[in-house]
């Protein structure tokens, strides 16, 4: 299973229809909506730790870098 980085849903990568490649890595999405959202601003979704998603998720005004 892969994790949809936009909404956090589990995605079966063998059946995923919405895939994006960013910096050499493949990302899988539950829907084309999430895929398009990701491609609009991929760096906003580069948090590996789900805990970070809670605080940093799509808040452009929030500076996630220390
Ligand atoms: Zn999604």
Overall description:
The protein contains two helices and four strands; from the N terminus they run ββββαα. It has one domain. The mean pLDDT is 80. The longest helix has 9 residues. The chain has 66 residues and is of the alpha+beta class. A hairpin with a 2-residue loop joins strand 3 and strand 4. It is globular, with a radius of gyration of 12 Å. The termini are far apart. The strands form two sheets. A two-stranded antiparallel sheet has the order 1-2. The protein has a two-stranded antiparallel ribbon with strand order 3-4. The site of zinc ion has 8 residues, from loops.
Quick description:
The chain has 66 residues and is α+β, with helices and mostly antiparallel strands.
Give every kind of bound small molecule, once each. Answer: zinc ion
Radius of gyration: 12 Å
Tally of separate helices: 2
Strand order of the largest sheet: 1-2
Structural class by SSE content: alpha+beta
The SSE string, one letter per element, is: EEEEHH
How much of the polypeptide forms β-strand, as a percent range? 15-25%
Number of strands: 4
